[in-house]
């Protein structure tokens, strides 16, 4: 039985870029994945990002409904805390999807964290 030889990588092709995953490690440090984006971890990360974004949309709709109503300070604090968490999650997803610096449009600036 002969085994198929592994294809020889093209030395001129760019290596895959690390992907920032939508979760952190045990010490709160960022987790990255290096791959082609088609594996099981990539699919789990895609599903988690979709869920996080959907939850942020639901929270935003709830906030919009609450603002014109008479609410207590405790309710507003609760809402502000959850909106802060949702915004942090959405920014994490957005930053994970930003292209690397060399591939961005000239003059494009991300205002969210002073990054270019």
Average pLDDT: 78
What global shape is seen? Answer: elongated
Number of strands: 2
Structural class: mainly alpha
- Report the total helices: 2
Strand order of the largest sheet: 1-2
Largest sheet: 2 strands, antiparallel
- Element order: H for helix, E for strand: EEHH
Specify Rg, calculated over alpha carbons.
20 Å
Low-confidence stretches: 101-116
* C-alpha termini separation: 54 Å
Helix content: 40-55%
Approximate strand percentage: 5-15%
Describe this structure in words.
The chain has helices at 40-66, 73-97; strands at residues 19-24, 30-33. The chain has 116 residues and is mainly α. It has a two-stranded antiparallel ribbon. The model is unreliable at 101-116 (pLDDT under 50).
Topology (SSEs and partners):
Blueprint (H helix, E strand, L loop, with lengths): L18 E6 L5 E4 L6 H27 L6 H25 L19
Antiparallel strand pairs: 1-2
Can you tag this structure with a few keywords?
mainly alpha, 116 residues, 2 helices, 45% helix
The gist of it:
The protein is mainly alpha-helical. Helices cover 45% and strands 9% of the residues. A two-stranded antiparallel sheet has the order 1-2.
